[in-house]
Amino acid sequence: MIRRATTLLTVLLVFVVPSVAQADFGIEPGSTSIAALNSDGTLTTQAGFHPYALTVHFALNTDENGITEGGEMRDTLSDLPPGLIGNPQAVPSCPRKSFEGALPSCEASTQVGVLRAVLPGLKTEAFGPLYNLTPPPGVAAQLGFTAVGFTALLAASVDPDKGYSVHVEAANLPLEASEVTATIWGTPADSSHDPERGNEGGLSSDAPLLPFLTMPTSCELPPEITVEADSKLAPGLFVGETAPMRDKAGNPQSLTGCEAVPFSPKVFAAPSSSAAESAAGLGFQLNLPNQGLLNPKEGAVTETEPEATVLRLPAGLTANPAVVNGLAVCTPAQYDAATEISGPSQGCPTSSKVGTLVAHSPLLEEAIEGSIYVAAPHDNPFDSLLALYIVAKAPGRGVLVKQAVEVQPDPLTGQLTSIVEELPPVPYSSFEVRLREGAQAPLITPQTCGTYSTTAVLFPFSEPEAATVQSAPFTISQGTGGAPCAKTEGQLPFAPTLSAGTTAPLAGAYSPFVFKLTRNDGEQRLSSLETTLPEGLTAKLAGIPYCPESAIAAAAARSGEDQGGAEAASPSCPAASEVGAVTAGAGAGPTPYYVGGHAYLAGPYKGAPLSLAIITPAIAGPFDLGVVVVRAGIYVDENTAKVTVRSDPLPTLLHGLPLDVRSVAVRMERSNFILNPTSCEAKAISASVTSTAGATAPLQNRFQVGSCKGLDFSPKLQLSLKGAIKRAGHPAFKAVLTQPPGQANIARTSVALPPTVFLDQAHVSNPCTRPQFNAHSCPPSSVLGKARVFTPLLDQPLEGPIYFRSNGGERELPDVVVDLNGQVHFILVGFVDAQHKKGSEQSRIRTTFATVPDAPVSKAVLSLNSGKKKGLFVNSANICKTANQAIVKMRGQNGKRIDSKPKVATSCKG
User: Fold this and answer.
1) What is the Cα–Cα distance from 295 to 298, expressed in whole angstroms?
2) What's the rounded Cα separation, in Å, for the pair 185 and 143?
3) In what order do the strands lie in the sheet with 443-444?
4) Beta-carbon contacts of residue 778 (< 8 Å; ≥ 6 apart)
5) Cα–Cα distance between 634 and 631 in angstroms, integer?
6) Which of 101, 104, 639, 755 has the most CB within a 10 Å radius?
7) Which helix (H) or strand (E) holds 554?
8) What is the mean pLDDT of residues 381-404?
9) CATH 2.60.40.2230 location in the chain
10) Position 803 pLDDT exceeds 50
11) pLDDT given at position 55
């Protein structure tokens, strides 16, 4: 938005004389006045009107002899009412060399009024023309007065810190003056001013008949003028008085007729790209026709400007996270340091610049140009997350425009609204804002094609409550990168890519695991994902404590702004529970912005025995958006030990800022955490990704390890029958499996017991049904024994009962099911059948575990009950009188086999 315009030339000249008592120097109370007059001398109060003349008067304290008290006046400073402007372009200017000398040789057309000053030291009055001079560089406008042998120059500027009122300064006045009256003509070329034109009067102007003065367009408060002066005895110590415009009765007088002030702005706004979901800048232009500004006809009223503007971008045209790459911010101190003459090293840093501004005013012959900077979050005039600073200059005229802009993102949709208040009450024809284009452009265009509209609500100075609403439509006419248009998000493609695997794919070795999911611009956005690891790709949980739920809740409680730094400095979860790092890329364009977080091992979550707590301090460049916590349940297939990780929905907005997630990368790099399988079969890491529109994309990434044949495979199995040894006895059975570390894991095992061991038919006829098993309500009679399995992956062994479970007729005999519980739940199913020896009626009871997970087991102990009521096995002969050998066949995950006939230990003496 524009903020600066140029100056009114209004005059207050002051002259000097010797003084008496410095303590009494000052403006005579009640002497300061300002009045706008019609041609008949009556007061005019019409807002936006070109008055016939404007008079300004003040006097100093004097003694009984009319001599100023406290010393001669040195300087005067005057601040005219905001909105009261003079147009130096409407009057020709007198060159400085023509003005200087005993008598000015300025053209009559350059005169803009007259000035009268009482000079008590000379016991006379100074009266003469007030000329519009050619201002020196850095000065907006300058008026000159000379009479009785002395000259005074009045430099006019616009003060952004005082509502852009015209500030007039007369410095180093040479003579004592006790009273000053300045009259500025509304239309200087009007022939009615000819009697006072020139030193002797009676001259005429050949300049165009153009208005010079324009009244404010606000009717809210009476216009006020402030006059200040210092003395030669105390330079820099200014004293002054503020006075309102008054009516005939001396009461403060507000302007009237604001309803008659025209206001017809035109707004244009569009992103720099017409392609969907693309990094884009924004072009915004506001034009004002300045109706009546140069109309000299009596009764003409000048168009007002907006006092405030609210600009709402359409839904879908949102902030681009990629803008923060290399972005700095401008602090209040840096913003305050910017002046009309400040250089590149002063003011807001270049790295905080996100746009440019060019404004044109009919009061200036040169454009006002400047930059738009990002303000420091919550260290700005609005204490807001997003704010902008506009700093623009017309250095040749010493004009400085400074404007703060509040930007409000909708917390639910990300729709952006910018609010600019306290705009300068000065005429401008147009101003144009351009937010930068390119890879780090600050906006993302809507995802779908169609017509969108930016809405501008403009509040005029004349009637702030009567806002004008305008729409500026634009069209997204092509897909991202020239792709075909999509009318809805659901019509967009959804083809994310997956890259995953271990960095050192060696069988049975520990290795970091990397997972990266990426989507392109122009595709449906990511919502959630589910990943299933191949069999055998496991993790060592031993020695890793869970991040407590209270700590995860504490991290989630840091979701407010400016809390991310606290989480980064002091993580909520203990470091011992960290298992990896997460990096997310966000933003449209070729250079997304990346933020990093940490993955912690956590306890049960949404039915999963384990979970990940992914905690990310959302610190994006200079913006601290708090902490994002995403949970992901870790589900372990109870039959195959396959691991599936299922995430909660990914956040799409943070404090109204869309994340536009482009990629999610996970690196599980804790030492000795991820363990490769010992099978070298080709496998796959699969994922199912869901978009915010509900689409699902199934993905796969090939996974295979090598060097399996180099792994040893030498597990040992010890079997024993203890207790009842005679025929029809029910001995206890025990199997103990051990295996050295670092070997190929077992893939399949079958054990055929000695032919003297049979199944007790009482157990065979009363197994646990599958519904009972799933409901954890198996009858006690189906319990065969118990099992304990030790693995280096867990701190504690898995243990649980062993059941006879029906299989729905899939096999002749029920299955032996080992129900292992602990940190995870796993079911090991053994198929029971009779192994017949060729050429003989001899048979053996055989149990085959056809599917064994590819996970290391250091020791497994299976114990079956004994006794007639609970024992599964029954002897067909006295086992102390037979050779008790089992037949064991084991195959490793790497294909190596071990076939043996181990002796079955018994409790027989000797």
Assistant:
1) 9
2) 13
3) 279-280, 443-444, 318-319
4) 768, 772, 801, 803, 805
5) 10
6) 104
7) helix 549-556
8) 92
9) 497-703
10) yes
11) 97
| Closest CA relative to residue 799, chosen from 770, 819, 827, 772 | 819
Phi then psi for 393, rounded to 5 degrees? -145, 150
Q: What is the mean pLDDT of residues 10-18?
A: 30
Phi and psi at 549, nearest 5°, equal: -60, -35
**How far apart, in whole angstroms, are the C-alpha atoms of residue 268 and residue 282?**
10
Distance CA 801, CA 786 (A): 4
Q: Which CATH architecture has domain 497-703?
A: Sandwich (2.60)
What is d(CA 212, CA 851) in angstroms, rounded to the nearest whole number?
97
830 contacts 749 by C-beta, under 8 angstroms: no
Q: What is the pLDDT of residue 13?
A: 28
Q: Would the pLDDT of 182 be above 80?
A: yes
- CA-to-CA distance for 768 and 357, rounded, in angstroms? 80
Quote the pTM value.
Answer: 0.86
- Strands in 450-460's sheet, in edge-to-edge order, are 266-271, 282-287, 430-435, 353-360, 368-374, 386-394, 399-409, 416-420, 306-312, 450-460, 468-476
Q: How far apart are CA 512 and CA 18, in angstroms?
A: 89
Helix (H) or strand (E) holding 337: helix 332-337
Beta-bridge partners for 786: 801, 863
CA–CA separation, 49 vs 289, rounded Å? Answer: 16
Helix boundaries (H) for 26-129: 96-99
Tell me how far CA of residue 432 lies from CA of 282, 290, 426, 772, in angstroms.
10, 16, 16, 75
Q: Print the SS3 string covering 169-183.
A: EECCCCCECCEEEEE
Give Cα separations from 218 to 83, 91, 252, 585 (angstroms).
8, 25, 15, 50
CB-CB contact of 377 with 385 (8 Å): yes
Among 356-370, 462-476, 480-494, 867-881, the least confident range: 867-881
pLDDT at 127: 92
Q: Average pLDDT in the 803-809 region?
A: 89
For 516-533, the three-class secondary structure string (H helix, E strand, C coil) is EEECCCCCCCEEEEEEEC
Residue 23 has what pLDDT? 44
How far is it, in rounded angstroms, from Cα 608 to Cα 84? 72
Across the range 293-301, mean pLDDT stands at 89
Of the chain, the percentage scoring pLDDT greater than 90 comes to 77
- Let me know: does 447 contact 316? Beta carbons within 8 Å: yes
In total, the chain counts a number of residues equal to 910
pLDDT of res. 150: 65
The helix/strand/coil state of 350 is helix
Q: Give the C-alpha separation, 431 to 1, whole Å.
A: 7
pLDDT for the residue 404 = 95
Instruction: Look at residue 30 and tell me whether its pLDDT is greater than 50.
Output: yes
Give SS3 for 446.
coil
Q: Average pLDDT for residues 70-86, to the nearest whole number? A: 93
End-to-end CA distance of the chain: 103
Q: Does domain 266-482 have CATH number 1.10.760?
A: no
Fold of 716-906: Immunoglobulin-like (2.60.40)
Q: In angstroms, rounded to a whole number, what is the distance separating the alpha carbons of residues 834 and 900?
A: 18
Identify the CA nearest to 357 among candidates 321, 396, 402, 322: 402
* Two structure tokens written together for 756: 């003297």
Give the residue among 516, 453, 854 at the shortest CA–CA distance from 663: 516
The DSSP symbol for 608 reads: B
The predicted pLDDT at position 874 comes to 87
pLDDT of residue 3: 34
pLDDT greater than 80 at residue 7: no
pLDDT at 296 over 90: no
Which element (helix H / strand E) includes 271? Answer: strand 266-271
